[in-house]
Amino acid sequence: MKAIGYLIRRIFWNTVKATLRKPAVLVMYLLLAALIVAAAFMGGANEVVAVQNVDVYSAAVMGLFAFILVISIMQGMKQGAAIFRMSDVNLLFTSPVQPRTILIYGIAKQFAILAFASLFMLAQYGNIRRMFGLGTEAMLGLIAGYILIGLFAQLLSANLYAFCASSETRRGRVEWFFRAVLIAVIAFFAVYALGERDLAGAARGFFGSAVWNFIPVIGWSKALAYYSAYGNLGMSLLFAFLLLASCGAMILWLQKSNQDYYEDVLQSAESTQARLEAAREGRVTASGTVSKKVKRDLGNLKGRGAWAFYYRIQRENQRRNKFVFTISSIVAAAAPLAAKLIFSDMHEGGLWGVLYFSAYMLIFTSLTSPVNKELTQPYLYLAPVPAFRKLAAILAPQMIGYLVDGLVFAVMCAAVLGASVFTAAFAALAYVGINVVYAVGLLLVQRLLGGLKNKVLIIFLFFIILILLVMPGFIVSMLVASTPAAYLICFACHMLIAAGALLMSRSVLNAMEA
Predict the structure, then answer these.
(1) Which long-range contacts (CB under 8 A, 24 or more apart) does 68-71 make?
(2) Which end of the chain, N or C, is less packed with Cβ atoms under 10 Å?
(3) Burial of 209 (0-12, 13-18, 19+ CB in 10 A)
(4) C-alpha closest to that of 178 among 69, 80, 101, 274
(5) Which residues have C-beta within 8 Å of that of residue 264, sequence separation ≥ 6?
(6) Residue range 435-491, pLDDT digits in tens
(7) Mean pLDDT of 273-288
(8) Distance CA 222, CA 148 (A)
(9) Would you tell me how many other CB atoms lie within 10 Å of the CB of residue 358?
């Protein structure tokens, strides 16, 4: 344990020293902390609000924890859980330290990472207070549930990878098991929704049901957050104990596995190290593996000049995803539904609030945009085509996707919020305009910040720049009455901003290191 204690102390002090040597990073962290505190204690956080929308809060917490668990399982099946870094592998696995001690160290480090990440949830304290009438107990229960479900998901991912690593048959069976569970949940919800004949009400009743409390782990984490929010300390401690026992069971499984766990986590540690090095150097790395299900013959290649890039991206999209809808389409469908869940009396007059919420969520989905990856391809710079045409070609596939997302948004606004066809269509145009601003904004961010290597600082400035780009359209629209014309003005403003940002970014391809 002395070696582990020494390593923890050195990591802590080296992190502190590295931060103090970089004033810009320190200022950024302090500013980020100030923004979190401001978001937590402003906007009605001190108002006395009666407890309300209990079923909505319960359903929202259930959805959050289910998302965390499902994503972790999917990632764990591919490359395991990133419990250790390559530095841990090189220093600890070769040292005379008991494997059990090393495992406890890795789990403790993951716990600390999750605890640090949960601090960002404090920014939602004001919203929880204002929309649900809940206070500090709810925030503490939500954080505790997030940490425990996240820790369990990491341990389960490591065990699943160890279990499936030596057998493709096992992997296939486990994948089909989880698919069957997801299909069963969707089927039960569909039947429940048909009986309710109200999609928003069905979501509140189904996912907010107390029946989930009896489902191991995912239901227990939801119950922990729920009972903590309403001051039931005994039930909160009971479900916290069940979650801790589940994590202990995962640890025992990992220890008793026939395969050595340090061999199982080696690949995930190497993958994590490769991503970190790529981030420091400003590169984008691929996974290095090709799925056996990929079809390598999808017809003849098309396109000449700059449009060859367009068809190449479309070909890659066909290989990765056989469906038209993507994560951004899910966000487009979820925003109106979430508004209806939280505000049961929501109608078409509240579409502006839905657009504001969508603008916030789309910042996070824009991080997965393929634009930055395309900018790292050498052939994009070598092609003898004007830079503006090449930028337009790599943006064109996204624009088509945004039109699909706009259609989904319009349909959901009309079906869930009861908006008229014209109002939903015009609001969808404003939604498309937000997406276009963010897509072109990525180019502008690359143009302005391409020389920076600190990815934390880049992401922070990325958020600030995108918010500044999208704000003028909303401000101008607020000066107009809440009519369909206001949505058109919002769309026109965002398109003008996007055009200006594209002109400012056209020189991003003039140099490989831009």
Answers:
(1) 68/146, 68/149, 68/150, 68/153, 69/149, 69/152, 69/153, 69/217, 69/218, 70/182
(2) N
(3) middle
(4) 69
(5) 80, 158, 161, 162, 165, 257
(6) 888 888 888 877 776 655 556 666 777 778 888 888 888 888 877 766 778 888 888
(7) 52
(8) 11
(9) 25
Round to whole Å and give the CA distance between 13 and 20: 11
Rg of the chain on CA atoms, in Å: 24
Closest by Cα among 491, 394, 482 to 434: 491
Largest interatomic CA distance in the chain: 72
> Taking the C-alpha atoms of 201, 206, 207 and 212 in order, what is their torsion angle to the nearest 10 degrees?
150
CA distance 218 to 214: 9
Q: Which residues contact 231 (CB under 8 A, 6 or more apart)?
A: 137
Distance CA 200, CA 174 (A): 32
Residues 6+ apart with CB under 8 A from 384: none
Average pLDDT value for residue range 293-314: 67
Arithmetic mean of pLDDT over the chain: 76
- Provide the residue type at 405 as one letter: D
Spell out the long-range contacts of 457-465 with Cβ–Cβ below 8 A and sequence spacing 24 or more.
Answer: 457/24, 457/25, 457/28, 459/367, 460/28, 460/31, 460/32, 462/367, 463/363, 465/441
Q: What percentage of the chain's residues is helix, strand, coil (to nearest 5)?
A: 80, 0, 20
- pLDDT 10s digits, 304-350: 777 788 888 777 777 666 554 567 777 788 888 777 776 665 555 66
252 vs 272: CA distance, rounded Å: 25
Please, which residues have CB within 8 angstroms of residue 339's CB and are 6 or more apart in sequence? 346, 350, 353, 354, 357, 417
Instruction: Determine the residue type at 370.
Output: P
> Does the CA dihedral 72-73-76-77 come out positive or negative?
negative
Q: What is the DSSP letter of 509?
A: G
Closest CA to 151 of 66, 228, 248, 280: 248
CB 143 within 8 A of CB 118: yes
Give the pLDDT of residue 243: 92
Q: Hunting for tokens 């999750």 — which residue is that? A: 114
CB 447 within 8 A of CB 504: yes
275/270 Cα distance (integer angstroms): 9
CB 189, CB 206: distance < 8 Å: yes
Q: What are phi and psi of 105, to 5 degrees?
A: -60, -45
Torsion sign, CA atoms 215, 221, 227, 230: negative
By C-alpha distance, which of 431, 30, 471, 412 is closest to 199?
A: 412
Burial of 514 (0-12, 13-18, 19+ CB in 10 A): middle
> In which band, very low, low, confident or very high, does the pLDDT at 300 lie, cut at 50, 70 and 90?
low
